[in-house]
Known about the structure:
With 207 residues, this protein is of the alpha/beta class. 55% of the residues lie in helices and 15% in strands. The protein contains 11 helices and 7 strands. The protein has helices spanning 12-24, 37-47, 63-73, 88-96, 109-120, 128-137, 145-149, 153-163, 168-175, 179-193, 198-206, and strands at 3-8, 28-34, 51-54, 57-58, 61-62, 78-83, 101-104. A 5-stranded parallel sheet has the order 2-1-3-6-7, with helices on both faces. Strands 4-5 form a two-stranded antiparallel ribbon. Helix 4 links the parallel strand 6 (78-83) and strand 7 (101-104). The protein is globular, with a radius of gyration of 17 Å. The termini are far apart.
Amino acid sequence: xxxxxxxxxxxxxxxxxxxxxxxxxxxxxxxxxxxxxxxxxxxxxxxxxxxxxxxxxxxxxxxxxxxxxxxxxxxxxxxxxxxxxxxxxxxxxxxxxxxxxxxxxxxxxxxxxxxxxxxxxxxxxxxxxxxxxxxxxxxxxxxxxxxxxxxxxxxxxxxxxxxxxxxxxxxxxxxxxxxxxxxxxxxxxxxxxxxxxxxxxxxxxxx
Length: 207
């Protein structure tokens, strides 16, 4: 079954480019394109897409606020911010609003499609530059020694690669294990560190 994607982006040229990118991906289909936030809030919820690709700077409002509103309406939909903004505050606000990924518009079409696939598998895709900013800028109290010591050597290896911005598939390749095994390790890590996402796990572990 194809992954359904809704695009929220005000730039007409980018919309046309991304529609072509989606059309060329055999497992992705674009179900709507909205050029502003109000249209998106009207059009997207009834479609309940698997993934929303959303710009932050929209002509009639903030994409971050829009992400929070859509997440309340569509809790199962994964939202990936797609923007030129590397501002640390914006990144943090987007993640707090419920975004599951954050990509810069400099990302290649291949990276965008890979991110859509990753977020559908429970991942948190980020452009490497953004992942580094998250780790460096949002220092939180480190996990307790007992929680850290509870991590296995393999789980620590997975976290280290995650901190470098690697996606699940890339971690699997680096460690020569299956992607399902990577996801199983992530679930165990979440439980041990008492977090709910990859981003929280990395921040808590490295903080």
